[in-house]
Amino acid sequence: MAIDRRELLREYESWEGAVPSSITVDPLWKMIVYRKALFLSDSAWNDCSRMYKDKRTVSLADQLYRAIGSISANIAEGYSRGTGRDRARFFEYALGSAREGRDWYFKGRHTLGYELAQHRSEQLAEVISMLVAIIPRQRTNGISEEPAIYKMEGDGEEKVEGEEKVESIA
């Protein structure tokens, strides 16, 4: 079965449109590597469901999903850290999980099919490449998150994270 790249792009765009705003309004969403990792996590859910049908790959599917799910989770946790070095450490965890996931996809190719496993490996290679570029920059820089606007309950006020005063938007 050949993989239609256009169909995969449509699948990603459809998925991206379905991500709830509680996630997309967070400054973390601006990190393309986070988006790709989160998409891979959803894709791995379906892939692992297929693998659970073959008793020989049940434990492999469990390991695969844990590794893939850890990528976006570690990026999210690292993004929330106060220093570049601390961030880099969590991004390194994400990098390790991405490489582990690529390894599990290779091992799962017998159940998933060579083309799908290869495609997922390519997607993971993109994530790996992005993380490899980000990690050294984080080690030398401090925190660089943009302020987020959080709406406050009440009379139409909003607070910008990192600012001390609350301004009315009425």
Report on the structure:
The chain is mainly α and 170 residues long. The chain starts with a helix and ends with a strand. The protein has helices at 5-18, 21-24, 32-51, 58-79, 84-107, 109-112, 114-140, and strands spanning 149-151, 157-160, 167-168. Strands 1-2-3 form a 3-stranded antiparallel beta sheet, with no helix packed on it. Helix 3 (32-51) packs antiparallel against helix 7 (114-140). A hairpin with a 5-residue loop joins strand 1 (149-151) and strand 2 (157-160). It is globular, with a radius of gyration of 19 Å. The chain has a single domain, classed as de novo design (two linked rop proteins) (Up-down Bundle), CATH 1.20.1440.60. The protein has 7 helices and 3 strands; from the N terminus they run αααααααβββ. The model is unreliable at 159-170 (pLDDT under 50).
Please sum up the structure shown.
By secondary structure, the chain is mainly alpha-helical. The chain is built from seven helices and three strands.
Question: What labels would you give this structure?
Answer:
single chain; 170 residues; mainly alpha; 3-stranded antiparallel beta sheet; 3 strands; globular; disordered C terminus
